[in-house]
Input
Amino acid sequence: MNKFEHGGNIYNDNGLAESWLDMSANINPLGMSSAVKSAIINNIEGLVHYPDPTARELKSAISYRYKISLENIITLNGAAEFFYLFFNTIKPKRVLIIVPSFSDYERAARSAGCDVVYFFVRAEDNFKVDLDRLIKIIKNENIDCVILGSPNNPTSNFLLSISDIIQLTKFVEYVVIDESFIDFIYADVSVRQLIGTYPNLITVQSMTKFYALPGLRLGFAVADKSLIERLENCKDVWNVNYLAQKAGVAALNDEEFFNKTCSWINLERPYVTERLQRINNIKIFNPAVNFVLIKINDCQTANELLNKMRQHKILLRSCANFAGLDASYIRMAIRSRTDNDCVINLWIDLMDKIK
Output
């Protein structure tokens, strides 16, 4: 398995999309909202023009939705763009990545020639960070940038509390928090509001997960004004295309879709967790957002399960290429009740046969 391979690959060897029940990508199963679809259709004619290079309308919508100053926002072609832009602009010498985590953190850091240091969180600790041990390594390894997911992918938990993150800012030049799944939590648990107080703190947020726009690519980052200006000067002028800007504005203004999504996840997350916990010989790590990490009793059983699921046109995410995990770990997206029941019922049946 490729070290930097992702979930959500529904394409065959000819590049054509096939029909899968995709539980490997953590995308909102409600799909695009009707407001977003209308915005895309109604603005098709606008494709004959260049997009607004400053994304003023989109930034205003982000500012209003999340109560952030415009000068602290940079819009992105998906959250992943930020990591390449940041590392190739700032070029920190030594980057510490709390793993297991999204592989593009490392890929982007190495693309800029940064040294990468892993800080492993362990299953036996429920993937929580020992802050004292982390700070000790930061000092001993001369780390100047720390990056982590919050909530984290693939563990679906918070690695550090907000107070721990504040503490971390005292010991390192940059702290980058990836909050791409934060909207799936119906509570204000983001650290983005701390940016003004802690200028070395940066948050990144995807809009492709919550608003089901992975094919359009959209996200934003929040940082100190001086850093935003540096990043703006180093990015592609038209990095966010015309339709993505229009779709983003419509998505952020759709309060009904936001509330509907939160109601869905608050019902399905405990339901899926409870059903999975009934399956023998697996361990469930309690999820905070729209996906769950599962450990099978051994790698061979996990691989056999994944292969048999594929035979039924169901994709689950092997975690074999996540640093700190192995092939016995599987990540499963939480989708509609029908999809969830379909996968879990088949899982139970297959585990009985695999035995």
Notes: The radius of gyration is 20 Å. Residues 21-31+256-354 form a domain with the Aspartate Aminotransferase, domain 1 fold (CATH 3.90.1150.10). DSSP finds eleven helices and 13 strands in the chain.
